Amino acid sequence: MTEKVLDTFKNIRYKPGLQIWTINNLKMVPVPEQAFGSFFEGDCYIILYGSNDDTQSMDIHYWIGNGSSQDEQGAAAIYVTQLDEYLGGSPVQHRDVQGYESAKFRGHFTQNIMSGVASGFKHVESNVYNILRLLHVKGKKNVTATEVEVSWKSFNSGDVFLLDMGKSIVQWNGPQSNRGERLKGCLLAQDIRDRERGGRARIGVVEGDREEASSELIKMMISVLGQRTGSLRDAVPDDTPDQFQVSHVKLYQVSDTSGQLMVQEVASSPLTQDLLHSEDCYIADVGGLSLAVWKGKKATVEERRAALERAVVSSECTLLLKGMFMTSANTLIHVVQGRHATQDEITACAYQAVNVDNRYNGAPVQVRVTMGKEPRHFLAIFKGRLIIYEGGTGKPGVVNPDPGARLFQVRGTNEINTKATEVPARASSLNSNDIFLLKTDLVTYTWYGKGCSGDEREMGKVVSDVLSKQDKQIVMEGQEPPQFWVALGGKGAYSSDKRFEREVALHSPRLFNCSNQVGQFRMTEVAQFTQDDLDEDDVMLLDTWDELFLWIGNSANQYETQESYRCAVEYLKTHPAKRDPETPVITVKQGYEPPTFTGWFNAWDSHKWSGGLSYEEMKSKLDDSGSVTQITMVCDPFSLSTD
Question: Residue 83: exposed, middle, or buried by beta-carbon count in 10 A (0-12, 13-18, 19+)?
Fold first, then answer.
């Protein structure tokens, strides 16, 4: 590597979470964190993701906008190759094209992915109101928002559109739009209001099949878009890949052992791991939907280059798989949102953030942090001493937990990835893979699960010193004193699978969404899953290797429920690692999850399902937060007043 290349990457290293750069003047330029998830079709981006576990595995994505130049695309590809080499060759490389993003790519972003029509690294800034744009919200499971021409010509009857006028945001729901799109539209509008406008923008909702009920909002739209003539375009179907494509996978071998480079088909689905040889490279064609390139450790340079070139020519979305993992802004304003914070509290917090921002003449970077999705840099501020308590003291009518016994789950291995989250003080909250702190009136117990590592134990001690100045007692799993169980309300079952006793699990758990919402039954993997990813409209499959769990959402239809079991059995039969077909398949209903299921999720919230908001409830809250009169008073899209 040249000195110039090394200088480009000198500040890049493994860290959990996202690091993003855009290609600007053929150079890598960092993207500010508040702009993560927003992409412009005239640009290319490089995304580095570090896993938040002991494996410290990494993924490198380069995203190609439809309007980006060949030079930018070439530069992104070169930088990705060089970055991969700089990081030791261990990251998995991904090539994602606008409109064809992989589930892995989408999984990195907890909010919606927004694609803009602008270019040249001009992201929307916080607290700026001279905005006029139209966002097209589309999709059933993977909902995206794309910036389109501000014109009635961009509308259709099947999707959701957000007319963003700076101080006012109008959401127009197509008559044939689905519930997911409408809910995501509301969430996106709220995100723009809170994250980009400091809570000062007003939001109104228009139902496309009942426009007469929102006449003032329609007048506002007409003042910007002009009078609508003619009928709207018909709905554009969401992506519905043919089941033949999904189920037919072909494997091609790229080899030069004969003295001449050859690419030939060697197998079709189901594929097994023993088909891969480290001396060659392989291309897996997933029914023309995507390609995966596997590079053998002993493959020649020519084979590696040829495999990638053939794949890029053949596909819109390429995934590079090779090797194993490597084991190794400036003032910020963080707006922290608790899991059960009210909309009034969220808005007030955002408003106060604006006040603080104004004191520093708009220089700070504002970062919204939601509970359970704390970014790495946020955790690093507290140096392993972050404690998240259940309940709050500022809410009228709220009874705080009994301070006599409080239980905290500790996760992390060092000062920049550790946090403690309060969980219900009962035995079922325990998990053999983690450390728990039980604070009572007289003593604080530090409970070491059999699967926790030495680094985790050290961080447990750090958090324990912050949590309490009382006497402390270390308790090993299986050697608990009677007083420990008394404080938890008695002994009970918890996640204590033998696999939790291993410091590094041999197989990481995987979560799949099972749905027929796109017209055909499909299973889609959810990357970096949390409890929030359990969709009550569908069935979810959790693979913990020794068991398969089928989680049935309350609104899942009968076909999904029946088909998911059949697919679980087929999943085991066709797994490339030749899984035991007798692996137990366990059905779990929403709201009745056993500890053996909840133990695979961090800080499981047993009250989550009663706290979730439907689209109708979300719309009602928006209606309560700003009347049509208030919205129309600030309908000038270029008003810079902040009163």
Answer: buried
Q: What percent of the chain has pLDDT over 90?
A: 20
Residue 64: how many CA atoms within 13 Å on its side-chain side? 21
Task: Write the burial class of residue 118 (CB in 10 Å: 0-12 exposed, 13-18 middle, 19+ buried).
Answer: middle
pLDDT at residue number 641: 36
What string of H, E and C letters represents the secondary structure of 609-622? Answer: HHHCCCHHHHHHHH
Inter-CA distances, 491 with 428, 482, 494, 600, Å: 9, 9, 9, 21
* Dist. CA 63–CA 46, nearest whole Å: 6
The arrangement of strands across the sheet holding 510-515 comes to: 522-526, 510-515, 539-543, 548-552, 585-589
Q: Which amino acid is at 135?
A: L
Q: How far apart are CA 291 and CA 306, in angstroms?
A: 14
User: Treating both helix axes as pointing N-terminal to C-terminal, what angle do 343-359 and 615-625 enclose, rounded to 10 degrees?
Assistant: 50
The residue with tokens 């060659």 is 280
Between CA 495 and CA 596 the distance in angstroms is 5
Q: With b meaning 16 or more CB within 10 Å and e meaning fewer, what string describes 169-199?
A: bbbbbbeebbebbbbbbbbbbbbbbbbbbbb
The pLDDT tens digits of the residues spanning 530-585 come to 888 888 888 899 998 888 888 988 888 888 888 888 888 888 888 888 888 888 88
What confidence tier does 300 reach under pLDDT thresholds 50, 70, 90?
Answer: confident
Tell me the two tokens of residue 280: 């060659």
Q: For residues 444 and 467, is the Cβ–Cβ distance under 8 A?
A: yes
632 to 244, 324, 356, 627: CA distances (angstroms): 51, 57, 28, 9
CA distance 218 to 287: 45
Tell me the C-alpha distance between 158 and 238, whole Å: 10
Q: Beta strands 17-24 and 58-64: pairing type?
A: unpaired
